[in-house]
Design brief:
Radius of gyration: 17 Å
Order of helices and strands: HHHEHEHEHEHEHEEH
Structural class: alpha/beta
Shape: globular
Low-confidence stretches: none
């Protein structure tokens, strides 16, 4: 796979500096993964396709030529937000994760990559929404939980007029079961972008939910309630 050519297909013109940053990212991910569980995917081509390239398909939903704020919920090892921050200086990225050791990894990585547009915070989404309610142009989550749970965690953080972007494997049932929650929380399904990763690495979907009205103040509930009784 020619990673740079794949980026060109996404209208991303990768500089040598960007190439070097992805190389540093890969090496650091593998190094830290040897003693801290960050990813089950470690083979070079798989990381570049299943993590880096897959993350950057989010540019099909975001205009990266204009300044924007983005919150990445449950980012894990930094996907999709770190690859996005590498390819554009227009992103003001906040990453939240409930596991502090992952946040430490991401902050250390951002420093090594000279990404001054990234801030990683140890927080749960349902708590962070009280502090930064309806504050972001975009909120994203990638393979964190089922969609009917994710929307309650993420939509409260999205500005009215902004987008929640869920990056999922294809699952029509998951989308159907989330429609009630999306409506209650002030969203509507704007678009679904489906694509195939190169080299038969699988099908993916980007579910784009537009925030059309304010989320009722009683949401999000505590995580145990969200999980036990999704909307």
């Amino acid at each position: 796979m020619d990673f740079i050519k794949e980026l060109e297909q996404l209208n991303i013109n990768a500089s040598k500096e960007m190439e070097n940053k992805f190389e540093i990212y890969y090496n650091r991910l593998i190094e830290v993964n040897s003693y801290m569980n960050l990813t089950a995917i470690t083979e070079r081509e798989e990381v570049y396709i299943k993590h880096f390239l897959d993350s950057l398909f989010i540019t099909k939903a975001i205009d990266i030529t204009k300044p924007f704020s983005l919150c990445d919920v449950g980012s894990g090892a930094g996907f999709p937000s770190i690859p996005l921050a590498i390819v554009t200086n227009n992103a003001n990225v906040t990453i939240i994760d409930a596991l502090n050791k992952r946040i430490n990894f991401i902050n250390d990585l951002a420093q090594k990559l000279n990404l001054d547009n990234v801030n990683a915070i140890h927080a749960r989404a349902e708590d962070y929404a009280k502090e930064k309610r309806e504050d972001f142009d975009y909120v994203t989550a990638r393979a964190v939980a089922r969609l009917n749970v994710l929307v309650e965690l993420c939509l409260p953080l999205v500005k009215v007029g902004g987008l929640f972007i869920a990056m999922k494997t294809q699952d029509e049932d998951e989308l159907n079961e989330a429609k009630n929650a999306i409506s209650i929380l002030g969203g509507k399904i704007e678009n679904i972008i489906s694509f195939n990763l190169p080299n038969d690495y699988g099908k993916r979907s980007i579910i784009i939910i537009k925030k059309i009205k304010n989320t009722p103040s009683k949401y999000p509930r505590g995580f145990s309630k969200i999980k036990e009784r999704p909307l």
